[in-house]
Design a protein that fits this description.
The chain is of the alpha/beta class. The chain contains eleven helices and 17 strands. The chain has two domains: 7-104 and 453-474, no CATH class; 141-446, Phosphatidylinositol (PI) phosphodiesterase (TIM Barrel), CATH 3.20.20.190. It holds the Pfam family PI-PLC_cat. It comes from Musa troglodytarum (fe'i banana). This is PI-PLC X domain-containing protein.
Amino acid sequence: MDRHIDFALFCYIWDQTPARWFKFCRSRECGWPPSYDIHYHVLPSDISVTRKTKAAVGHHPPKNSIPSLSIITISIWLCKGREKTLLPLLVLLLLHSRLLPSSSAAQLGSICLSNGNCDAGLHCETCLANGNLRPRCTRIQPTDPKSKGNGLPFNRYAWLTTHNSFARLGQRSRTGTPVIAPENQQDSITGQLNNGVRGLMLDMYDFENDIWLCHSFGGNCFNFTAFQPAIDVLKEIQLFLEANPSEVITIFIEDYVTSPKGLTKAFNASGLMKYWFPVERMPKNGGDWPLLSDMISRNERLLVFTSKAAKEASEGIAYEWRYVVENQYGDGGMEAGSCPNRAESLPMNAISRSLVLMNHFPSNPDMATACKHNSAPLVSMLSTCHGSSANRWPNFIARSDGGGAPEATDIANGHLVCGCNSIACCKVNASFGVCDDPAKPGAAATSASYRLSSPALASQLQYFSLLAIVLVSMAP
Protein backbone atom coordinates (compact mmCIF):
# COMPACT_ATOMS: atom_id res chain seq x y z
CA MET A 1 0.00 0.00 0.00
CA ASP A 2 1.28 3.45 -0.89
CA ARG A 3 2.09 5.68 2.07
CA HIS A 4 1.16 9.36 1.95
CA ILE A 5 4.11 11.43 3.19
CA ASP A 6 2.95 14.62 4.88
CA PHE A 7 6.14 16.61 5.06
CA ALA A 8 9.43 17.36 3.36
CA LEU A 9 12.54 18.14 5.40
CA PHE A 10 15.37 20.19 3.90
CA CYS A 11 18.61 21.29 5.57
CA TYR A 12 20.77 24.10 4.23
CA ILE A 13 24.25 25.04 5.40
CA TRP A 14 25.75 28.44 4.75
CA ASP A 15 29.32 28.23 3.52
CA GLN A 16 31.29 31.38 4.32
CA THR A 17 33.86 31.10 1.52
CA PRO A 18 32.56 31.29 -1.10
CA ALA A 19 29.20 32.45 0.21
CA ARG A 20 26.48 30.05 -0.89
CA TRP A 21 23.81 27.75 0.43
CA PHE A 22 24.36 23.97 0.42
CA LYS A 23 21.46 21.56 0.53
CA PHE A 24 22.57 19.19 3.26
CA CYS A 25 19.79 16.61 3.54
CA ARG A 26 16.31 15.94 2.22
CA SER A 27 13.43 13.68 3.09
CA ARG A 28 10.73 12.34 0.81
CA GLU A 29 8.55 15.00 -0.72
CA CYS A 30 4.82 15.45 -0.54
CA GLY A 31 2.30 16.76 -3.02
CA TRP A 32 2.85 20.22 -4.46
CA PRO A 33 2.52 23.01 -3.45
CA PRO A 34 3.09 22.68 0.30
CA SER A 35 0.82 24.55 2.69
CA TYR A 36 3.43 25.83 5.12
CA ASP A 37 7.19 26.16 5.17
CA ILE A 38 8.80 26.29 8.61
CA HIS A 39 12.29 27.77 8.65
CA TYR A 40 14.41 26.86 11.66
CA HIS A 41 17.66 28.82 11.91
CA VAL A 42 20.07 27.03 14.19
CA LEU A 43 22.32 30.11 14.23
CA PRO A 44 20.60 32.14 15.57
CA SER A 45 17.89 29.90 16.96
CA ASP A 46 14.68 31.15 15.43
CA ILE A 47 11.41 29.84 14.08
CA SER A 48 9.24 31.40 11.43
CA VAL A 49 6.15 29.92 9.77
CA THR A 50 5.22 31.36 6.38
CA ARG A 51 3.15 30.48 3.35
CA LYS A 52 5.30 29.17 0.50
CA THR A 53 4.56 28.55 -3.15
CA LYS A 54 8.07 28.16 -4.53
CA ALA A 55 10.74 25.62 -3.72
CA ALA A 56 13.89 26.63 -1.92
CA VAL A 57 16.95 26.41 -4.13
CA GLY A 58 20.20 24.90 -2.96
CA HIS A 59 23.38 23.30 -4.24
CA HIS A 60 24.97 20.08 -3.18
CA PRO A 61 28.39 20.55 -1.55
CA PRO A 62 31.38 19.26 -3.48
CA LYS A 63 32.62 15.85 -2.47
CA ASN A 64 35.16 15.58 0.34
CA SER A 65 34.53 19.17 1.44
CA ILE A 66 33.51 20.43 4.87
CA PRO A 67 31.99 23.92 4.75
CA SER A 68 32.86 26.58 7.31
CA LEU A 69 29.63 26.42 9.24
CA SER A 70 27.96 29.56 10.42
CA ILE A 71 24.22 29.08 9.87
CA ILE A 72 22.13 25.96 9.43
CA THR A 73 18.58 26.48 8.19
CA ILE A 74 16.02 23.71 8.42
CA SER A 75 12.99 23.96 6.16
CA ILE A 76 10.03 21.70 6.91
CA TRP A 77 7.19 21.72 4.41
CA LEU A 78 3.75 20.59 5.55
CA CYS A 79 1.40 19.14 2.98
CA LYS A 80 -2.10 20.44 2.49
CA GLY A 81 -4.68 19.03 4.82
CA ARG A 82 -2.21 18.06 7.56
CA GLU A 83 -1.42 21.48 9.07
CA LYS A 84 -3.67 21.12 12.09
CA THR A 85 -2.19 17.80 13.18
CA LEU A 86 1.47 18.32 12.36
CA LEU A 87 2.04 22.07 12.79
CA PRO A 88 1.60 22.16 16.60
CA LEU A 89 3.89 19.14 16.97
CA LEU A 90 6.57 20.68 14.78
CA VAL A 91 6.54 23.99 16.60
CA LEU A 92 6.69 22.18 19.95
CA LEU A 93 9.61 20.04 18.85
CA LEU A 94 11.50 22.97 17.36
CA LEU A 95 11.01 25.08 20.47
CA HIS A 96 12.21 22.17 22.57
CA SER A 97 15.36 21.94 20.47
CA ARG A 98 16.38 25.41 21.68
CA LEU A 99 16.90 23.86 25.10
CA LEU A 100 19.27 21.16 23.89
CA PRO A 101 22.61 21.49 25.68
CA SER A 102 25.73 21.85 23.60
CA SER A 103 28.44 19.31 24.34
CA SER A 104 31.15 21.95 24.20
CA ALA A 105 31.38 25.63 25.12
CA ALA A 106 32.43 28.20 22.56
CA GLN A 107 35.10 30.79 23.24
CA LEU A 108 35.14 34.54 22.78
CA GLY A 109 34.28 35.46 19.19
CA SER A 110 32.99 32.01 18.23
CA ILE A 111 29.64 31.67 16.50
CA CYS A 112 27.03 30.39 18.93
CA LEU A 113 23.53 28.99 19.15
CA SER A 114 22.50 30.46 22.49
CA ASN A 115 24.01 31.71 25.75
CA GLY A 116 24.40 28.11 26.86
CA ASN A 117 26.86 27.45 24.04
CA CYS A 118 29.34 30.05 25.30
CA ASP A 119 31.96 29.88 28.04
CA ALA A 120 31.23 31.40 31.44
CA GLY A 121 31.15 35.18 31.32
CA LEU A 122 30.03 35.25 27.66
CA HIS A 123 26.66 35.92 26.03
CA CYS A 124 25.53 34.88 22.57
CA GLU A 125 24.83 38.22 20.87
CA THR A 126 24.73 39.88 17.48
CA CYS A 127 25.77 43.45 16.69
CA LEU A 128 23.90 44.56 13.60
CA ALA A 129 25.12 48.13 14.01
CA ASN A 130 28.68 46.89 13.45
CA GLY A 131 27.62 44.81 10.45
CA ASN A 132 27.93 41.53 12.36
CA LEU A 133 24.86 39.52 11.41
CA ARG A 134 25.93 36.25 12.99
CA PRO A 135 25.64 35.77 16.75
CA ARG A 136 28.96 35.34 18.50
CA CYS A 137 30.09 34.70 22.04
CA THR A 138 30.57 38.18 23.50
CA ARG A 139 32.06 39.27 26.81
CA ILE A 140 29.66 40.53 29.44
CA GLN A 141 31.98 40.41 32.45
CA PRO A 142 35.05 42.53 33.09
CA THR A 143 38.05 40.89 34.71
CA ASP A 144 37.84 41.14 38.49
CA PRO A 145 40.64 43.58 39.41
CA LYS A 146 40.88 42.00 42.86
CA SER A 147 42.34 38.94 41.15
CA LYS A 148 45.55 40.97 40.82
CA GLY A 149 45.46 42.13 44.44
CA ASN A 150 43.18 44.17 46.69
CA GLY A 151 45.81 46.13 48.59
CA LEU A 152 45.41 49.44 46.73
CA PRO A 153 43.23 52.44 47.65
CA PHE A 154 39.66 52.20 46.40
CA ASN A 155 40.31 55.03 43.93
CA ARG A 156 42.90 52.83 42.19
CA TYR A 157 40.25 50.51 40.76
CA ALA A 158 37.65 50.81 37.99
CA TRP A 159 34.14 49.36 38.15
CA LEU A 160 31.57 48.68 35.45
CA THR A 161 28.48 50.78 36.19
CA THR A 162 24.96 50.72 34.73
CA HIS A 163 22.82 53.77 34.01
CA ASN A 164 19.18 53.45 35.12
CA SER A 165 20.09 50.03 36.46
CA PHE A 166 16.47 49.37 37.48
CA ALA A 167 14.91 50.07 34.06
CA ARG A 168 14.83 46.56 32.69
CA LEU A 169 13.68 45.83 29.16
CA GLY A 170 10.15 44.44 29.04
CA GLN A 171 9.51 44.86 32.75
CA ARG A 172 5.95 45.56 33.84
CA SER A 173 5.37 48.12 36.56
CA ARG A 174 4.62 46.71 40.00
CA THR A 175 1.55 48.94 39.86
CA GLY A 176 0.21 46.54 37.22
CA THR A 177 0.46 49.15 34.48
CA PRO A 178 2.67 48.72 31.39
CA VAL A 179 5.75 50.93 31.63
CA ILE A 180 5.88 53.74 29.08
CA ALA A 181 9.37 55.00 29.83
CA PRO A 182 12.94 54.38 28.61
CA GLU A 183 14.25 50.89 29.31
CA ASN A 184 18.00 50.77 29.73
CA GLN A 185 19.05 47.29 30.86
CA GLN A 186 18.61 43.72 29.69
CA ASP A 187 19.24 42.06 33.06
CA SER A 188 17.83 42.25 36.55
CA ILE A 189 19.88 43.89 39.29
CA THR A 190 20.99 40.46 40.49
CA GLY A 191 21.92 39.48 36.93
CA GLN A 192 23.95 42.64 36.51
CA LEU A 193 25.83 42.05 39.76
CA ASN A 194 26.51 38.44 38.80
CA ASN A 195 27.92 39.72 35.49
CA GLY A 196 30.47 41.98 37.16
CA VAL A 197 28.60 45.28 37.49
CA ARG A 198 29.66 47.04 40.70
CA GLY A 199 28.14 50.50 40.23
CA LEU A 200 24.37 51.07 40.11
CA MET A 201 22.56 54.27 39.15
CA LEU A 202 19.08 54.43 40.68
CA ASP A 203 16.41 57.14 40.34
CA MET A 204 14.37 57.32 43.56
CA TYR A 205 11.04 59.11 44.07
CA ASP A 206 8.27 59.43 46.63
CA PHE A 207 5.37 57.39 45.25
CA GLU A 208 2.36 55.65 46.82
CA ASN A 209 3.59 56.44 50.34
CA ASP A 210 6.86 54.66 49.66
CA ILE A 211 10.17 55.11 47.80
CA TRP A 212 10.04 53.88 44.21
CA LEU A 213 12.46 53.48 41.32
CA CYS A 214 10.95 55.56 38.59
CA HIS A 215 11.30 57.81 35.59
CA SER A 216 9.34 61.01 35.71
CA PHE A 217 7.35 63.57 33.78
CA GLY A 218 7.69 67.05 35.19
CA GLY A 219 9.50 65.70 38.22
CA ASN A 220 6.62 63.41 39.18
CA CYS A 221 6.35 59.63 39.21
CA PHE A 222 3.29 57.98 37.62
CA ASN A 223 1.93 54.44 37.38
CA PHE A 224 3.23 54.12 33.82
CA THR A 225 6.74 55.37 34.70
CA ALA A 226 7.18 53.57 38.04
CA PHE A 227 9.13 50.31 37.88
CA GLN A 228 9.18 48.92 41.41
CA PRO A 229 9.59 49.87 45.08
CA ALA A 230 13.22 50.68 45.88
CA ILE A 231 13.19 48.22 48.78
CA ASP A 232 12.97 45.30 46.32
CA VAL A 233 16.19 46.27 44.54
CA LEU A 234 17.94 47.17 47.80
CA LYS A 235 17.15 43.68 49.10
CA GLU A 236 18.65 42.17 45.95
CA ILE A 237 21.83 44.11 46.67
CA GLN A 238 21.77 42.97 50.31
CA LEU A 239 21.49 39.33 49.29
CA PHE A 240 24.39 39.71 46.86
CA LEU A 241 26.67 41.34 49.45
CA GLU A 242 25.75 38.66 51.96
CA ALA A 243 26.60 35.88 49.51
CA ASN A 244 29.80 37.57 48.25
CA PRO A 245 31.78 38.83 51.27
CA SER A 246 34.67 40.25 49.21
CA GLU A 247 32.58 42.42 46.86
CA VAL A 248 32.07 46.19 47.11
CA ILE A 249 29.10 47.96 45.49
CA THR A 250 28.55 51.66 44.83
CA ILE A 251 25.07 53.20 44.46
CA PHE A 252 24.52 56.57 42.80
CA ILE A 253 21.07 57.95 43.66
CA GLU A 254 19.37 60.50 41.46
CA ASP A 255 17.41 61.75 44.43
CA TYR A 256 13.86 63.10 44.19
CA VAL A 257 12.83 61.89 47.65
CA THR A 258 11.42 64.67 49.84
CA SER A 259 9.81 62.62 52.61
CA PRO A 260 11.67 63.04 55.94
CA LYS A 261 14.42 60.41 56.28
CA GLY A 262 12.87 58.59 53.33
CA LEU A 263 16.13 57.12 52.06
CA THR A 264 17.32 56.23 55.55
CA LYS A 265 14.12 54.28 56.19
CA ALA A 266 14.48 52.39 52.92
CA PHE A 267 18.09 51.39 53.60
CA ASN A 268 17.29 50.40 57.19
CA ALA A 269 14.43 48.19 56.02
CA SER A 270 16.64 46.51 53.40
CA GLY A 271 19.29 45.31 55.85
CA LEU A 272 22.04 47.19 54.02
CA MET A 273 23.14 49.47 56.86
CA LYS A 274 25.54 46.84 58.22
CA TYR A 275 27.58 47.24 55.01
CA TRP A 276 27.47 51.05 54.97
CA PHE A 277 30.71 52.91 54.31
CA PRO A 278 30.50 55.97 56.62
CA VAL A 279 30.78 59.39 55.06
CA GLU A 280 33.27 60.33 57.80
CA ARG A 281 35.80 57.92 56.26
CA MET A 282 35.51 59.38 52.77
CA PRO A 283 38.60 61.42 51.86
CA LYS A 284 38.28 65.16 51.43
CA ASN A 285 40.28 67.36 49.04
CA GLY A 286 41.31 64.58 46.66
CA GLY A 287 43.12 62.27 49.06
CA ASP A 288 43.38 58.52 48.62
CA TRP A 289 40.50 56.34 49.76
CA PRO A 290 41.01 53.52 52.26
CA LEU A 291 42.55 50.34 50.91
CA LEU A 292 40.08 48.04 49.20
CA SER A 293 41.27 45.22 51.46
CA ASP A 294 40.55 47.39 54.50
CA MET A 295 37.03 48.17 53.31
CA ILE A 296 36.41 44.45 52.83
CA SER A 297 37.83 43.41 56.20
CA ARG A 298 35.75 46.07 58.00
CA ASN A 299 32.67 44.97 56.04
CA GLU A 300 32.19 48.55 54.83
CA ARG A 301 31.31 47.35 51.36
CA LEU A 302 28.49 49.65 50.30
CA LEU A 303 29.13 53.20 49.11
CA VAL A 304 26.06 55.38 48.60
CA PHE A 305 26.02 58.80 46.94
CA THR A 306 23.06 61.16 46.61
CA SER A 307 22.42 64.09 44.28
CA LYS A 308 20.98 66.12 47.21
CA ALA A 309 23.71 68.05 49.04
CA ALA A 310 21.68 68.58 52.22
CA LYS A 311 21.31 64.85 52.88
CA GLU A 312 24.98 64.45 53.75
CA ALA A 313 24.32 66.34 56.98
CA SER A 314 20.73 65.21 57.58
CA GLU A 315 21.01 61.50 56.71
CA GLY A 316 24.72 60.76 56.46
CA ILE A 317 24.50 60.04 52.73
CA ALA A 318 27.48 61.41 50.81
CA TYR A 319 26.79 64.21 48.34
CA GLU A 320 28.23 62.79 45.14
CA TRP A 321 30.01 65.84 43.76
CA ARG A 322 31.99 66.46 46.93
CA TYR A 323 33.91 63.30 46.09
CA VAL A 324 33.39 62.62 42.38
CA VAL A 325 33.92 64.43 39.09
CA GLU A 326 31.55 63.30 36.37
CA ASN A 327 31.33 64.01 32.66
CA GLN A 328 28.18 64.98 30.79
CA TYR A 329 25.60 62.23 30.44
CA GLY A 330 23.52 61.45 27.34
CA ASP A 331 24.33 62.56 23.81
CA GLY A 332 26.45 65.44 25.09
CA GLY A 333 28.86 62.97 26.66
CA MET A 334 29.34 60.91 23.50
CA GLU A 335 30.85 63.51 21.20
CA ALA A 336 34.20 62.17 19.98
CA GLY A 337 37.20 64.03 21.34
CA SER A 338 35.25 65.87 24.06
CA CYS A 339 34.72 65.04 27.74
CA PRO A 340 32.95 68.00 29.41
CA ASN A 341 31.79 67.85 33.02
CA ARG A 342 28.10 67.75 33.83
CA ALA A 343 26.66 70.92 35.36
CA GLU A 344 26.66 69.72 38.98
CA SER A 345 30.25 68.50 38.88
CA LEU A 346 33.49 70.40 39.18
CA PRO A 347 35.60 70.36 35.98
CA MET A 348 36.96 66.94 35.11
CA ASN A 349 40.51 68.03 35.95
CA ALA A 350 39.59 69.05 39.52
CA ILE A 351 42.01 66.93 41.57
CA SER A 352 40.22 67.90 44.79
CA ARG A 353 37.84 65.05 43.90
CA SER A 354 39.55 61.68 43.94
CA LEU A 355 36.93 59.60 42.08
CA VAL A 356 36.19 59.92 38.35
CA LEU A 357 32.91 58.80 36.77
CA MET A 358 32.68 58.50 33.00
CA ASN A 359 29.24 58.36 31.38
CA HIS A 360 28.93 56.88 27.91
CA PHE A 361 25.34 56.31 26.82
CA PRO A 362 22.89 58.13 24.51
CA SER A 363 20.02 60.24 25.79
CA ASN A 364 17.55 57.69 24.43
CA PRO A 365 18.53 54.03 24.90
CA ASP A 366 18.87 52.05 21.69
CA MET A 367 19.50 48.34 22.08
CA ALA A 368 20.39 47.95 18.40
CA THR A 369 23.31 50.40 18.51
CA ALA A 370 24.48 49.90 22.10
CA CYS A 371 26.96 47.19 21.13
CA LYS A 372 28.58 49.61 18.68
CA HIS A 373 28.64 52.49 21.19
CA ASN A 374 30.21 50.21 23.78
CA SER A 375 33.05 49.03 21.54
CA ALA A 376 35.64 51.25 19.83
CA PRO A 377 33.88 54.57 20.63
CA LEU A 378 33.82 53.71 24.34
CA VAL A 379 37.51 52.82 24.37
CA SER A 380 38.29 56.04 22.51
CA MET A 381 36.26 58.09 25.00
CA LEU A 382 38.21 56.40 27.79
CA SER A 383 41.39 58.01 26.48
CA THR A 384 39.67 61.35 25.87
CA CYS A 385 38.33 61.55 29.42
CA HIS A 386 41.71 60.44 30.79
CA GLY A 387 43.27 63.49 29.19
CA SER A 388 40.49 65.77 30.43
CA SER A 389 40.69 64.42 33.99
CA ALA A 390 44.26 65.42 34.82
CA ASN A 391 45.53 62.12 33.39
CA ARG A 392 43.32 60.06 35.66
CA TRP A 393 41.51 56.94 34.48
CA PRO A 394 37.82 56.62 35.39
CA ASN A 395 36.85 54.66 38.48
CA PHE A 396 33.30 54.14 37.25
CA ILE A 397 32.40 53.48 33.61
CA ALA A 398 28.66 53.98 33.19
CA ARG A 399 26.88 52.60 30.17
CA SER A 400 23.28 51.92 29.24
CA ASP A 401 21.95 48.78 27.52
CA GLY A 402 24.03 46.30 25.58
CA GLY A 403 27.39 44.63 26.07
CA GLY A 404 30.89 45.64 25.00
CA ALA A 405 31.96 47.62 28.07
CA PRO A 406 34.11 44.96 29.83
CA GLU A 407 37.11 45.69 27.61
CA ALA A 408 37.05 49.39 28.53
CA THR A 409 36.82 48.48 32.22
CA ASP A 410 39.79 46.13 31.85
CA ILE A 411 41.82 48.85 30.15
CA ALA A 412 41.11 51.35 32.92
CA ASN A 413 41.94 48.78 35.59
CA GLY A 414 45.18 47.89 33.84
CA HIS A 415 46.37 51.49 34.03
CA LEU A 416 45.07 52.05 37.56
CA VAL A 417 46.21 48.81 39.18
CA CYS A 418 49.56 48.10 37.55
CA GLY A 419 50.31 50.65 34.82
CA CYS A 420 49.65 48.16 32.01
CA ASN A 421 47.40 48.36 28.98
CA SER A 422 44.91 45.92 30.47
CA ILE A 423 44.25 44.24 33.79
CA ALA A 424 44.94 40.97 31.97
CA CYS A 425 48.58 42.07 31.69
CA CYS A 426 48.98 42.81 35.41
CA LYS A 427 50.99 40.40 37.54
CA VAL A 428 49.59 39.51 40.94
CA ASN A 429 50.96 41.84 43.63
CA ALA A 430 53.80 42.94 41.32
CA SER A 431 55.46 46.35 41.23
CA PHE A 432 53.70 49.09 39.29
CA GLY A 433 54.64 48.97 35.61
CA VAL A 434 55.58 45.28 35.58
CA CYS A 435 53.42 43.72 32.89
CA ASP A 436 52.90 40.38 31.22
CA ASP A 437 52.55 40.04 27.46
CA PRO A 438 50.84 43.30 26.43
CA ALA A 439 48.80 41.59 23.74
CA LYS A 440 45.17 42.56 23.76
CA PRO A 441 43.32 40.27 26.18
CA GLY A 442 41.23 37.71 24.39
CA ALA A 443 43.03 38.21 21.09
CA ALA A 444 43.89 34.55 20.81
CA ALA A 445 40.35 33.56 21.54
CA THR A 446 38.95 36.13 19.15
CA SER A 447 41.13 34.90 16.29
CA ALA A 448 40.09 31.32 16.89
CA SER A 449 37.94 29.54 14.35
CA TYR A 450 34.33 30.67 14.16
CA ARG A 451 33.20 27.20 13.26
CA LEU A 452 30.64 25.38 15.28
CA SER A 453 32.27 22.60 17.24
CA SER A 454 31.65 19.18 15.74
CA PRO A 455 30.06 17.79 18.95
CA ALA A 456 27.56 20.65 18.98
CA LEU A 457 26.80 20.11 15.29
CA ALA A 458 26.39 16.39 15.87
CA SER A 459 23.92 17.06 18.67
CA GLN A 460 21.80 19.27 16.41
CA LEU A 461 21.85 16.86 13.47
CA GLN A 462 20.95 13.94 15.72
CA TYR A 463 17.96 15.90 16.90
CA PHE A 464 16.72 16.67 13.42
CA SER A 465 17.21 13.06 12.38
CA LEU A 466 14.96 12.10 15.28
CA LEU A 467 12.46 14.73 14.18
CA ALA A 468 12.34 13.25 10.68
CA ILE A 469 11.79 9.75 12.04
CA VAL A 470 8.93 10.94 14.25
CA LEU A 471 7.23 12.68 11.35
CA VAL A 472 7.58 9.71 9.02
CA SER A 473 6.12 7.42 11.65
CA MET A 474 3.05 9.66 11.91
CA ALA A 475 2.24 9.43 8.23
CA PRO A 476 -0.86 7.28 7.58
